[in-house]
Amino acid sequence: MADSLLLDPHTYDPTHLDDTSRRLLRATVDWFEGRGKKALLDSYDRHEWYADFLDFAAKEGLFAAFCTPAADGGGDPAKRWDTARNAALSEILGFYGLGYWYTWQVTVLGLGPVWQSDNAAARARAAALLDDGHVMAFGLSERAHGADIYSTDMLLTPDGDGGFRASGAKYYIGNGNVAGLVSVFGRRADVEGPDGYVFFAADSRHRAYHLVRNVVNAQMYVSEFRLADYPVRPEDVLHTGRAAFDAALNTVNVGKFNLCTASIGICEHAMYEAVTHAHNRVLYGRRVTDFPHVRRELTDAYARLVAMKLFSDRAVDYFRSAGPDDRRYLLFNPMTKMKVTTEGERVVDLLWDVIAAKGFEADTYFDKAAKDIRGLPKLEGTVHVNLTLIMKFMANYLFHPAEHPPVPRRHDAADDEFLFRQGPARGLGAIRFHDWRAAYDAHAEVPNVARFREQADGFCALLAAHAPSEEQQADLDFLLALGQLFALIVYGHLILEQAELTGLDSDVLDEIFDVLVRDFSAYATELHGRAATTGEQAAWALAHVRRPVADPQRTARMWARVAGLSGAYEMRP
User: Residue ranges of the Acyl-CoA dehydrogenase/oxidase C-terminal domain (predicted)?
Assistant: First the structure.
């Protein structure tokens, strides 16, 4: 039985998008399905560079259409930067394998500094390269410093003719083996401080660009490269000074959003495979899915996966509706990078607990999913980096709501041009949000929404009565426990908004919040156990452990939905 909430390649037709986007997305699905499962798995196992996929993308003009802003598209109506359809493509590519998503993802990142630049020559060059089927790269991180852009060792020395000579190394740079354009971050050797930052465009085919190696043992190419006296012409310079710093952070805001949809795609494919295997296997004289713990684990996995999709889909609307006076997306972005991707890990773990040894078999998609799903929470900092960022919004989000016009569903064929003029990457603590309580109030009749609301209100009471002391605010271990509780409230908020907009079945919504009630209780228990937690805070934590509202009839209906996934999709051999 097809499930309308999950991607099903057999019936996929994104009718919410324009005809050209629908055709390109459907063509992408058809290319993978026509290629078949054996080719997909063999190329993964042999670490084959995905030249055949890039040939397909070039022939179809896929990346050129999806990655070229309308202003640089030469009047082609197919070309625009549309976060809704980019998210759809990201989910499809994740569904078939992390490598295919990764080459797309790092192309998006590589283009970020270009589309934010006023350099018309560089923009025209990037658009032409996309038309020719090239991919791009984002040369930010370094082996000694990671993505710490304050400490870059890529040095640019003025050449006396308005340009520079660049020397230094970059590390962990996707597509760095073939990128037609690499956006490279460095600093001038003759200027101290932020005024010395430079973003420039390099070409991996240049003789002064030296490819060192692939730093991962995988199908994707994650390069180490070195520039040795690389000539940076004035027309290659994208940003200088503080603008270069802002371009780095704002590119991450745009590009790393795709982590969530990759995770969703991986989980969807893994879920079809796992449910089909478990539901058709007999152990000890019983169907595996007749065991109560198996049903619970698979139902939890399904509920978590649907929640991931609901949150991410609604976050798209906030990205597309953003502007100088509405930067709420800057909270929802680290939520997708941290919360949605870690939920993806939990989904795969639940499925793996059910299918056990089957999850190691080489002829399954699952054993690839089990490995690749781990990378997504770690491809943009780590969980603690994003949680620390999320905490910057907590006071205004919980206690100081502001009026904002309602954000509609954004499936229109519009160019999200604000994403390339986000401005200075600061002032996060001043961003105001609409009242989160309204979404919870609108679904108060759903038993587990109401129960979770009790916990959320209790969290606000904790902060009002027993706010973290200065010492606790300096204790990252304590703050991370607190941050997980706050993140759940934000997560539930957008899930509820999307449920309202899509008319989500109340059984599914209740089941999702059954999970969130248990998660809140688990994180409250973690807070109770932290060494820095005070007696009053610990007492609060235990007092807000809740059991979800049980409903055997709802549980039975939800299981029927999950069991219906058995045999619903299987990739052609």
Answer: 245-394
CATH of the domain at 185: 2.40.110.10
Cα dist from 496 to 360, 449, 516, whole Å: 36, 9, 12
Are residues 386 and 532 part of one domain?
A: yes
Q: Distance of CA 461 to CAs 40, 118, 467, 526, 532, Å?
A: 52, 48, 9, 18, 19
3-state SS assignment for residue 3 = coil
Please, which residues bridge with residue 239 across strands?
Answer: 199
Here the CATH number for the domain that contains residue 115 is 1.10.540.10
Do the beta carbons of residue 297 and residue 353 sit within 8 Å?
A: yes
Structure tokens at 191: 């200027």
Within-domain flag for 317: no
| Token digits of residue 439 | 């979404």
Orientation of helix 341-355 relative to helix 258-279, angle to 10°: 10
Is the same domain home to 461 and 473? yes
* In a shared domain, residues 392 and 528: yes
Do residue 489 and residue 472 come from a single domain?
yes
Question: Are the C-beta atoms of residues 414 and 320 closer than 8 Å to each other?
Answer: yes
Domain boundary (196, 214, 240) is at 240
Q: Which H or E run includes 230?
A: strand 222-232
* Whether residues 392 and 521 fall in one domain: yes
Show the 3-state SS of 380-445: CCCHHHHHHHHHCCHHHHHHCCCCCCCCCCCCCCCCCHHHHCCCCCCCHHHCCCCCCHHHHHHCCC
Among 339, 313, 326, which Cα is nearest to 87's? 313
Do 111 and 139 form a contact (C-beta atoms < 8 A)? Answer: no
Are 148 and 90 in a shared domain? no
Q: Closest by alpha carbon to 519, among 552, 473, 485, 480?
A: 485
Report the distance separating Cα 120 and Cα 118, nearest Å.
6
Q: Which residues, including other chains, have CB under 8 Å from residue 75's CB and lie 6 or more apart? A: none
Each residue's pLDDT, cut to its tens digit, for the chain (573 residues) gives 467 899 999 999 999 999 999 999 999 999 999 999 999 999 999 999 999 999 999 999 999 999 999 999 999 999 999 999 999 999 999 999 999 999 999 999 999 999 999 999 999 999 999 999 999 999 999 998 877 777 899 999 999 998 999 999 999 999 999 999 999 999 999 999 999 999 999 999 999 999 999 999 999 999 999 999 999 999 999 999 999 999 999 999 898 899 999 999 999 999 999 999 999 999 889 999 999 999 999 999 999 999 999 999 999 999 999 999 999 999 999 999 999 999 999 999 999 999 999 999 999 999 999 999 999 988 755 677 888 889 999 999 999 999 999 999 999 999 999 999 998 878 888 999 999 999 999 999 999 999 999 999 999 999 999 999 999 999 999 999 999 999 999 999 999 999 999 999 999 999 999 999 999 999 999 999 999 999 999 999 999 999 999 999 999 999 999 999 999 999 999
Under 8 Å CB-to-CB from 356, ≥6 apart: which residues? none
Q: How far apart are CA 554 and CA 189, in angstroms?
A: 65
SS3 at position 174:
strand
* Domain span holding position 46: 19-134
